[in-house]
Design brief:
five-stranded mixed sheet, 3 domains, 20% strand, 446 residues, six-stranded antiparallel sheet, 13 strands, binds adenosine-5'-diphosphate, alpha+beta, Heat Shock Protein 90, Helix Hairpins
């Protein structure tokens, strides 16, 4: 996939993702509002229905008492007899002789006449000890209006069905009345959850796909960069060798053996350089975290640093580069692999030279801390951007500079440095500011 196509996919993906999210948020908001309104209306309607229902029950019960009194030719006061204890629970005082089945018939009839279509449970109580004398659950059904659930099983019967005057009351309870409201609100919120889960899953999958595409793109770039560098690095000595050997073949050197020797030495040197390059790349590319073997011995860090500083000074004789060393560590002896640690120091100083901005100034400081030694390398080079800083220790990673690579390298130096430091159970940290410089802090245990 070309860079343009990937960029288009990323931009298109991000745009569609944002619009899906926006639509989703808008949709959720408006549906929530509509649901809220519907719920308020429903609640209002329910409370109206409830009040109407309570009124119907009170009237029906008063009718029942009235009927009983008429039957018994009693003219006692009806108004205090019916008491409402809660929305679905009523209590009625009775002073008459009454057969329970007769009461049941009356309740059924007057409930039906008052349009009450609910199951109800009635119970007759002895008011001296509040114990139930008789009770039954009556189911409402459209065909037969009201049915007792059973005469014998569900109904509580007492042998003392002869209901004496005074000291009795009966209650009516509607078990299904209050539940309806609760069910409504539970039902209306459940499809939401599924929709939300599906949208979150789709979004998650989308983000995952995008991250895979971006990672693949970066890998392809890194690989291309590496091949370009490799080609460049290897081509130069090969073409020099080619030119020199061609000259030797073409020309007659019988009168000028010195010139022949010069060409031969060019071929020899370039071949050595080629060999070194291939060796270096192959060695580092092959290295893996758990495959490094360290030949540890007691080494003096200050000596290694001094050696590197001397080499730097020698190479910078013409350019006027400066290196300053401040050895604050009192104990610079650690148990480590001398060759690898020397390579680490040279790699970091080489980078400071490669990525210089003006006259190079390098400062190296050592310090004893946390049972080991820390070495700080500071340069005044071009610096590294924050985004690249996270990746400079990755294998083959080079800070992208467009197609132009005037600085040679394979992106393996810092990968190697980190690998070696960590193989010694040490740590490495980097700080950098573009156009100001970079500092690497290495800590190695004793
Ligand atoms: P190489 O130098 O072969 O490219 P490295 O692994 O040594 O690979 O470094 C990775 C990248 O980090 C380099 O391409 C360079 O851009 C950046 N870098 C490393 N050291 C410095 C430094 N001292 N100053 C600025 N940039 C640096």
């Amino acid at each position: 996939m070309s860079r343009k196509v990937i960029n288009a996919v990323v931009i298109f993906g991000a745009l569609s993702l944002t619009s899906v999210l926006l639509i989703q948020v808008f949709w959720i908001k408006s549906t929530l509002k509509a649901q809220q309104t519907a719920l308020t209306l429903q609640e209002r309607q329910d409370s109206l229905n409830m009040r109407q229902f309570e009124e119907q029950v009170r009237v029906a019960l008063r009718n029942v008492v009235e009927e009983i009194n008429t039957q018994q030719a009693d003219s006692s006061d009806l108004y205090g007899a019916v008491k409402q204890k809660s929305t679905n629970y009523f209590l009625v005082d009775i002073n008459e002789d009454l057969h329970p089945y007769y009461l049941e018939q009356l309740l059924k009839r007057y409930f039906y006449d008052n349009g009450i279509s609910q199951n109800f449970l009635y119970g007759i109580y002895d008011c001296f000890n509040d114990s139930i004398v008789y009770g039954n659950l009556i189911r409402f059904s459209r065909d037969s209006l009201y049915n007792p659930i059973s005469d014998t099983i569900a109904g509580i019967t007492s042998p003392e069905l002869a209901w004496k005057k005074d000291g009795h009351y009966f209650t009516v309870f509607f078990p299904d009345v209050q539940n309806e409201l609760v069910e409504l609100s539970v039902q209306s919120s459940s499809p939401w959850l599924y929709l939300l889960i599906i949208v979150v899953l789709i979004l998650g999958f989308f983000v995952f796909s995008l991250s895979v595409i971006i990672r693949q793109k970066r890998l392809a770039e890194v690989r291309n960069d590496f091949i370009n560098n490799m080609t460049h690095e290897l081509k130069t000595p090969i073409s020099t060798i080619g030119l020199s050997s061609e000259t030797i073949l073409r020309e007659d050197f019988s009168h000028n053996p010195e010139k022949l020797k010069k060409y031969a030495s060019i071929i020899y040197k370039e071949n050595k350089r080629l060999e070194n390059q291939v060796e270096k790349v192959l060695n580092i590319a092959k290295l893996r975290e758990n495959e490094i073997t360290l030949n540890k011995s007691k080494i003096a860090i200050h000596e290694i640093l001094e050696e590197a500083a001397e080499s730097f000074r020698f190479n910078q004789l013409e350019n006027g580069g400066l290196i300053e060393t401040v050895y604050n560590a009192t104990d610079d002896i650690i148990n480590a692999d001398e060759v690898h640690i020397t390579n680490v120091v040279f790699n970091i100083i080489d980078n400071a030279v490669k990525y210089a901005r003006e006259t190079i100034v390098i400062r190296i400081q050592t310090k004893n801390e946390r049972g080991g030694i820390s070495i700080l390398f500071e340069d005044n080079g071009i610096g590294i951007k924050k985004d690249d800083l996270k990746q400079i220790f990755e294998k083959f990673y080079r800070v992208p500079t467009g197609n132009l690579h005037d600085v040679k390298g394979f992106g393996l130096g810092l990968y190697y440095v980190k690998l070696i430091v960590e193989a010694h159970r040490g740590t490495i940290h980097v700080k950098s500011k573009v156009d100001e410089g970079t500092s690497f802090l290495i800590w190695l245990p004793k």
